[in-house]
Amino acid sequence: MELAILREKIGYHGISLALATVLTGAALMSANHLTLPAIAQAAQDDLKTSLVQVLPEGMADNDLLADTVSIAAAGKEVTVYRGRKNGAFSAAVFQYSGRGYAGEIVLLVGLDAEGVVQGVRVLKHAETPGLGDKIEVAKADWIHSFKGKTLGTARWGVKKDGGEFDQFAGATITPRGVVKAVKEALEFYAAHKAEIAGEKS
Fold first, then answer.
1. Rounded to 5 degrees, what are φ and ψ at 16?
2. Integer Cα distance of 79 and 70 in angstroms
3. The pLDDT of residue 37
4. Does pTM top 0.85 for this prediction?
């Protein structure tokens, strides 16, 4: 009977709602805390898989995730994963982004010590399905056209602009943005090669 009377009080509903909110919040925080290590590990595994995709097997024998350097460029920090072979610097892998038709295109670029492109992969984009998404390795081979290129030996542009890289029918802006981003990534590497290689602090 007392419970029925209590329920009729105005404060009862507020207290009940507050208690339910606190309990729900505590449960969410607990679940988040428990899943953080698994989420972090999955992210590391994904990154490791991506790093291997842009460097040929045997180019590095160290753990790239454990050998990094952060370099300030264009107002942001670029984390470079350094490959070593028998202790000597042999490769660099880092993210670089460009502007596509629908927004930012995030690339992972792998280079050997001399600045020769070993591989490029698209990590994130919002380009039009069926047109601009041909930059994905799962949709087309176009992204492989950067392999073996250097800053000084390629005509950095799409064919429509006098360059050597194919554009897509109905989606020239997307490949143009990727080509520009890869070129800028090579320029970044050339400007910071000594620091990346550990030749200067």
1. -65, -45
2. 4
3. 63
4. no
